């Protein structure tokens, strides 16, 4: 099991810097931030941009893998995003994962592009978005012609440090999105059962996660992917709750979800108020009592990439139920 943390981009860098440095010092394998213009309950609160935040975090850390959670077609174009991803990964010395999602028609959509799209249309656009980004980051020059994106002879030079491109982590809960993850992702991402607006205790979420994992195996079979080559990341806190209530709950969640097949467990950095309200001392205790002993018992975990012998990066280039 690898362990990760989401740090909301809500503090000025003079304070946020401490969080990113501490996340590495505590022994987390990866750290993420949200790639959105504004966000749900915190719409009127301070909210900084994802890419500059990750670049700054890369400059003050040396081991921890960094990632977007998640970049979407809502206001990202694959050409511009490819250049930013290449640059971020370079600053991080290869310690970068590009988290991708379809978008769900939230505040960002209404501000940037108020066009009403069905879940099916968002899924079509997302598939093109991921395919185009895959090609851009894997080739020195790329042309593409689709329904949603078209560009000609775009250079991405010198390319990614990780070959043929940076790892992708694709968020999906529906069959189409899972097949897309099976074709192109190194890691599949779920936040839990879709369609909810409150967090289930993690014990009660186990059956939903187990069903999602079964469907993911089916999607891998349908695309010819060995399921063992696809990492499975669970983002807790919004739909799956209680994981960071105590050291004991964290240890129990790691064991239970690990038995199901989850390879990466991610929590949110505790905040003083809703959402993700909690005590940072619990996070520190988890690091001391769970993460540190695990590191001593096994070699340090690498980036969130596919296990040796498989994954989207080694094959051809080729959250809603539709995604």
Note down, in words, how this protein is organized.
This protein is of the alpha/beta class and 323 residues long. It is 40% helix and 16% strand. Strands 1-2-3-4-7-8-10-12 form an 8-stranded parallel barrel, surrounded by 5 helices. The protein has a two-stranded antiparallel sheet with strand order 5-6. Strands 9-11 form a two-stranded parallel ribbon. The C terminus is likely disordered.
As residue ranges, the low-confidence spans are 306-323
**Beta-strand content bin:** 15-25%
User: Distance between termini?
Assistant: 26 Å
Structural class: alpha/beta
Cα Rg: 18 Å
What is the string of SSEs from the N terminus onward?
EHEHEHEHHEEEHEEHEEHEH
- Percent helix range: 25-40%
Principal-axes shape call: globular
Number of helical stretches of at least 4 residues:
9
User: What do the pLDDT scores average to?
Assistant: 91
Strand order of the largest sheet: 1-2-3-4-7-8-10-12
Number of strands: 12
- What composes the largest sheet? 8 strands, parallel, barrel
In terms of topology, how is this protein built?
Blueprint: E1 2-6, H1 13-26, E2 30-33, H2 50-60, E3 65-68, H3 78-91, E4 96-100, H4 107-112, H5 119-138, E5 141-145, E6 150-155, E7 168-171, H6 175-184, E8 187-190, E9 200-201, H7 202-223, E10 231-235, E11 240-241, H8 247-260, E12 264-268, H9 280-297
Parallel strand pairs: 1-2, 1-12, 2-3, 3-4, 4-7, 7-8, 8-10, 9-11, 10-12
Antiparallel strand pairs: 5-6
């Amino acid at each position: 099991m690898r362990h990760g943390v989401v740090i909301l981009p809500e503090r000025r860098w003079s304070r946020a810097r401490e969080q990113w440095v501490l996340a590495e010092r505590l022994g987390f394998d990866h750290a993420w931030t949200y790639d959105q213009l504004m966000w749900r309950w915190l719409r009127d609160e301070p909210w900084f941009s994802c890419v500059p935040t990750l670049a700054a975090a890369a400059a003050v850390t040396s081991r921890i893998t960094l990632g977007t959670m998640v970049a979407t077609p809502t206001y990202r174009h694959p050409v511009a995003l490819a250049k930013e991803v290449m640059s971020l990964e370079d600053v991080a010395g290869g310690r970068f994962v590009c988290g991708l999602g379809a978008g769900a028609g939230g505040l960002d959509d209404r501000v940037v592009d108020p066009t009403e799209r069905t879940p099916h249309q968002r899924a079509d656009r997302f598939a093109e978005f991921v395919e185009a980004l895959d090609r851009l980051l894997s080739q020195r020059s790329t042309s593409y012609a689709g329904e949603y994106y078209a560009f000609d002879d775009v250079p991405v030079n010198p390319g990614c440090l990780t070959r043929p491109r940076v790892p992708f982590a694709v968020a999906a809960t529906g069959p189409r999105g899972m097949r897309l993850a099976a074709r192109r992702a190194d890691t599949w991402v779920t936040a839990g059962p879709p369609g909810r607006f409150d967090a289930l205790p993690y014990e009660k979420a186990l059956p939903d996660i187990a069903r999602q994992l079964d469907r993911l195996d089916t999607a891998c079979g349908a695309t010819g992917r060995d399921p063992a080559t696809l990492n499975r990341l669970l983002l807790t806190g919004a739909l799956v709750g209680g994981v960071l209530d105590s050291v004991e709950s964290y240890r129990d969640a790691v064991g239970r979800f690990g038995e199901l097949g989850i390879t990466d467990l991610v929590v949110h950095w505790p905040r003083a108020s809703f959402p993700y309200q909690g005590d940072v001392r619990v996070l520190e205790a988890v690091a001391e009592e769970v993460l540190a002993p695990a590191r001593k018992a096994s070699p340090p975990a690498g980036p969130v990439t596919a296990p040796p012998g498989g994954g989207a990066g080694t094959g051809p280039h080729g959250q809603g139920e539709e995604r």
